[in-house]
């Protein structure tokens, strides 16, 4: 049996590349995103009643990984990137059908220039990710207080994030507090490879967030944003 899936929309988020995207939803609560519905799904009727709910389930495609295929075992970052477990015991992005799911906050729904746009918070999706379905989050059935979290039972530890004086000056004045909050929450997760957690290195890292090339360094107890280099990018979140 073969099934064809057609995306119903696309997400626009501050995350312009896979590096440093939060590994789970809700870890960067300040980050805002939008889904622009498309095709037959771009209908006011399709979202009627949606705003009754505070949170949504998003089903999406790991479109940047589809051509790479998948393997039955993976190395989760939470296990240091060394131990292998079954792909179905993980949330790895390399999956048999490349489908992901995230529980995110619903901020609102608006209609603009003929488009239905769903406003979200706490997302963990790369800008441009195809959305294949949206479902309301139902607390009485979807929240299971007695559930066991396996190797990922605890929230990941975070590091404090500091900005150099020059980096502060490079923030866009009109969005400075929002951009600084999101960048801080993203980098606090320490997006480096898992084997570098808790270690100091001499490397300067960079990640594309909003319309900045964010340069930062990591010590064992803090992260410092050294520069915010502007990128000519007029997409969402710039």
UniProtKB/TrEMBL annotation:
Q: The TsaA-like domain covers which part of the protein?
A: 5-146
Going by the entry's taxonomy, the superkingdom of the source organism is recorded as Bacteria
Task: Name the InterPro entries on file.
Answer: TrmO-like_N (IPR023370), TrmO_C (IPR041369), UPF0066_cons_site (IPR023368), YaeB-like (IPR040372), YaeB-like_sf (IPR036413), YaeB_N_sf (IPR036414)
GO term, biological process aspect, one: methylation
Keywords, A to Z, come to: Methyltransferase, S-adenosyl-L-methionine, Transferase
Q: Which PANTHER family match?
A: TRNA (ADENINE(37)-N6)-METHYLTRANSFERASE
The protein here is known as: tRNA (N6-threonylcarbamoyladenosine(37)-N6)-methyltransferase TrmO
Species this protein is from: Photobacterium swingsii
Q: What gene name is given for the protein in this entry?
A: tsaA
């Amino acid at each position: 049996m073969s099934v064809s899936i057609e995306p119903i929309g696309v997400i626009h988020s501050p995350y312009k590349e896979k590096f440093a995207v939060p590994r789970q939803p809700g870890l960067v609560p300040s980050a805002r995103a939008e889904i622009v519905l498309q095709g037959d799904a771009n209908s006011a009727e399709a979202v009627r009643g949606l705003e009754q709910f505070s949170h949504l389930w998003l089903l999406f495609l790991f479109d940047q990984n589809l051509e790479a295929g998948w393997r039955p075992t993976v190395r989760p970052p939470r296990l240091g990137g060394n131990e292998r477990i079954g792909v179905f015991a993980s949330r790895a992005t390399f999956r048999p059908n490349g489908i992901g799911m995230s529980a995110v906050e619903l901020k609102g729904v608006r209609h603009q220039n003929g488009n239905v746009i769903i406003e979200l918070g706490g997302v963990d999706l790369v800008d441009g990710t195809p959305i294949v379905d949206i479902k309301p989050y139902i607390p009485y059935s979807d929240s299971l207080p007695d559930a066991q979290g396996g190797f990922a039972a605890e929230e990941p530890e975070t590091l404090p994030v500091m900005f150099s004086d020059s980096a502060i000056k490079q923030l866009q004045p009109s969005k400075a507090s929002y951009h600084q909050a999101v960048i801080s929450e993203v980098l606090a997760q320490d997006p480096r490879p898992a084997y570098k957690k808790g270690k100091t290195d001499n490397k300067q890292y960079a990640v594309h967030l909003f319309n900045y090339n964010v340069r930062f360094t990591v010590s064992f107890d803090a992260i410092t944003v050294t520069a915010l280099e502007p990128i000519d990018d007029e997409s969402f979140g710039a």
